[in-house]
Specification:
Radius of gyration: 20 Å
Strand content: over 45%
Number of domains: 1
Number of strands: 21
CATH architecture: 5 Propeller
Structural class: mainly beta
Amino acid sequence: MNFTKIIKKFINRRFYTEIWHVGVFKGDITEILSNDFLENKKISWIPNPKSFSYFADPFFLDVKSSELNLLAEYFDYRNKIGEIWQLNLDKDCQLQSTKKIIVDKFHHSYPAIFENENKKYLLPESSAASNLSLFEFDKKLETLQKLTNLFDETILIDATILKYQNLFYLFFNSKTPHHKNNSILNIAYSEQIESNWLMHSANPVKIDTANARPAGNFFVIEDKLYRPAQDCALSYGAAIIINQVIKLNKDEYIEEFITRINLPESFPYQDGIHTINYKNGYFVIDCRENFFSPFKIFIVWQRRLTRLLAKIKKRL
């Protein structure tokens, strides 16, 4: 590594912070098959709560005529522990209120929502706790009920559920000593959502940093099934790849590249996109901004001091 790279790495670590921004806009699902479909879109960007914090990994909970409800990760660099929040928007996609859904000592993110038989399930990533929990969402009370842990003592990253030909399939990333956690795509399957999950015989079904890690729910266009994936070849969440699922059963999985979603030059946030979801005429995405601030060092020291004081208090 030459001197210029060392200096650049030092500056990036000390003064740049990864900030994500969630945007909502109207559109038709068929547009997603074009790599320039984000061009000329009127996007409503949801404001982040405060400096050095952000919303990311957005999923639609509900889309009604008068309001939209999202679930997203809330992350604050002051503690670096992700929480799951509900974001309530009006019909013009303007944020009206928020509600904390999951707050825990472990990091939570990627609140994948799955609907089946008039029930809504939530499968947030909790790889920091080495498990994967399944929740059911109570529509009336707007609360979660934990049903079970689908996996214990196992790290599953950005797990996404699909029901296909009477089987439930779970797509997720994992990592090994030889591969990064962005490159290995695995599948598990079960006849019932709450138990008896088995690993796919072809695992890992894909090893590709540029086209493996899940980027949102599956979607169907003209009876064809598609899977969004993250392109992490150049950096984490640099772009989104759309793949068509060609074959899926207990023993086989084949998908084909369709397009790469590029960020238009007109976008205010140009450094990456790693989640896309669609429901009832609306898209939701998140885009990355590599934010420069000389105050980053103060946030880092604030976090370290808070953790140190917590340890001291625990020992007393």
